[in-house]
Every structure is written in C-alpha cells, then in structure tokens.
Design goal:
Double Stranded RNA Binding Domain, alpha+beta
Length: 88
C-alpha cells in the first residue's frame, strides 16, 4: 500500500481588530502579516502569505523552518505543489 504524503500545516496567530477584521501572522516564519474582514477570509490570505514567504526563502537559499505544533491555533496549508517543493 502506498504511503500518504503529509500535507504541511503551519499554525497562525489570528487577532481580531477593534476597528473590524482580523490580522494574521505566521509565528514559525517570524515576519509578514495579512488581514481579512472575516475570519475565513483572513485564513485564506494567510495561506497566500505562507506560500509567498516559503517560496521567497527557497529562492534566497534560506532554511525553511518546520511547522511547530498548532497547540489550539488555526492551521493553514500550503498548496500541494509548493509543499512538494519544500520536501525536496
């Protein structure tokens, strides 16, 4: 039986803003932020931010950190093609 590939999932920090919307950061990456008016929109934006950050690290020959434990935080996933590139 073939093994299933593990899909990378990175925890995010998501905070509600008093003036509306949500701000999302990537604790494992250490930089970058995005936002969305709704929780789900903010998570979709975080997926894009994660992919761009990791592709940028790879393009600059930087080490890509492994995702930490979610510990109750929301998790965003890389698209399958980008996740495969990270694994290589």
């Amino acid at each position: 039986m073939a093994e299933r590939a593990t899909v990378r999932g990175d925890p995010v920090r998501i905070e509600w803003e008093a003036d509306g919307g949500y701000v999302v950061t990537l604790p494992d990456i250490g930089y970058g932020a995005t936002q969305g008016d709704a929780f789900e929109e903010a998570l979709r934006q975080a997926e894009d931010l994660l992919e761009e950050a990791i592709l940028g690290m790879m393009a600059n020959d930087e080490d890509v950190p492994s995702p930490s434990s979610a510990r109750g935080r929301p998790v965003v996933r890389l698209p399958a093609l980008t996740a495969a590139k990270v694994e290589l």
